[in-house]
Specification:
The chain is mainly α. It has a domain of 183 residues. It contains ten helices and two strands. The radius of gyration is 23 Å and the shape is globular. Strands 1-2 form a two-stranded antiparallel sheet. A hairpin with a 2-residue loop joins strand 1 and strand 2.
Length: 302
Amino acid sequence: MSTAYPAGLEAPFTHPPAPQRPELPDGIEPTSMAPNWRVWMGFAALLVGFVAAAVGAVILTLIGAAFDGSVITSGKLSNPSPAINILATVVQDLCLIGAALVLARVAGRPRPWDFGLRGTRLWPAVGWALLTWVSFLAVTLAWVALIGAEDAADTLPSELGADKSSVALVAVGILVCVLAPLAEEFFFRGFFFTALRSWKGIWPAALVTGLIFGGIHAGSSNIAFLVPLAFFGFALCLLYAKTRSLYPCIAIHAANNSVAFCSSQDWGWQIAPVLAGSLALVALICWLVRRAAGPTPAWALS
């Protein structure tokens, strides 16, 4: 025996099926996932970050001059000590992070997962990260062969004074292999690329981010590596978009810088411990930040 109910009414104790989330175009995240950052915020943060870094570098150099008159030649500042160079680079990285946080605040209180500090599936992330790195190495080899720069070397460690003492060497190693990947990925992929995605989507945002990422290394890397570095910045954006997590980008960036740093010192067996140590330290810092921020909501991981 069946019971009929008036049209439009459900049987007792039943519920209508849950509505399905509509599919979104490629490159567009659910509203709950996408921070409300605009393209101008990315460029404003870039300007603010580097202006603040330049001011900080001048202040540090003046402080150094107060303790070491040799940095003043003919009334001009010159040849700052390795300590000043290292501290100025640290300040630059911190200014980029600070600028991203300040400009993100314009659109509301930023959350760690807004910058990509959220988990992802391990093995797919490892696979995509390795593909990104191999692609970058292939482009680098092809480019330096094309322009005949096979003997080009990374001069940043020596410019920072890594060859002056063992203390300076360790400090530069931590700066290049740990702090720089964390700061640059947080700013360029976590904030700048994310802000630009609201403009035209993934591919144009990745291209612009890559070009700027390569360009900002003009003063610290051999000119032969600028094009490969631009490609690296572009590829890291795609890696971030694919995994929706900043952690694979940070890991590959740290691994690449570790190998490059060791190569600049003509090291061989030391590559393995430096690489392992850098990744371990990066993982520890990311874990501490994530723990301090509290658990990531389930919807931010979906």
